[in-house]
Amino acid sequence: MSVEVTWWGHATATVRDSGVTVLTDPLLVRRLAHLRRRRGALPPPHAVRADLVLISHLHADHLHLGSLAMLAPGTHVVLPRGALRAVPGLRRLARQLELTEVVPGDEVSAGPVTVRAVPAAHDGRRLPVGRHISPALGFVVAGEERTYFAGDTGLFDGMAEAVGEVDTALLPVGGWGPFLGEGHLDARRAAEVLTRLRPRSAVPVHFGTYWPVGLDAVRPHEFHSPGAEFKRLAARPAPQVTVHLLEHGESVRLGADR
Length: 258
Known about the structure:
Layout: E1 3-9, E2 12-17, E3 20-24, E4 31-32, E5 35-37, E6 52-54, H1 65-68, E7 76-80, H2 83-86, H3 89-93, E8 98-102, E9 107-110, E10 113-119, E11 137-142, E12 146-149, H4 159-163, E13 168-172, H5 187-197, E14 201-205, E15 210-212, H6 221-224, H7 226-234, E16 242-243, E17 251-254
Parallel strand pairs: 3-6, 6-7, 7-8, 12-13, 13-14, 14-16
Antiparallel strand pairs: 1-2, 1-17, 2-3, 4-5, 5-15, 9-10, 10-11, 11-12
Helix pairs in contact: 5-7
């Protein structure tokens, strides 16, 4: 058996492992406030079909209410603890979706797959006025393989111990604007993550999808280049890691030859 990863753009990806479909941070719209999708077609309708949906933190480009409303009734959604209190719109969705709040260390199962919440170094509150009541999370999806979805995070002490052994890492390598703030990975820092976690494979995400309206000409390399730069930078410190640089909607099968 093998694991299949499909990148739909930004932090939205599908991980298929052991017959279970896991969807991460679904953002399925062309426009979000001041951000517009500049590259890649919108995910097709079947992208919303999932056995389990993982929400890494409460920022609107990761916890997007309109995209969650597209999920089939009864879909199981895993969110940081405190999300229902911080985001009132979730209470309406709770009537049609199964919502589970977690903190680092908690585990949720879907068939033969277990998902463990792990820490992330990121301000995960609901902006612009949210309080610090919900942790930002990453997740390790464990079935045939162990796939780490980092959400949004910076480097932090004890990262390798917190995440544990993984086969594939889905790592953010950029953002949606000309400058990255605290609590993010750029291509260089994401390459350093590989030296800590030592996965067999990596897939760069969270770049080259959304950009602020009117800023197309401002630092355009920060939109276009992070994925390729990550692959280039990773080759020296982590030559044992195969980096799969996917286009929007492209899939890769992992583990079939192991």
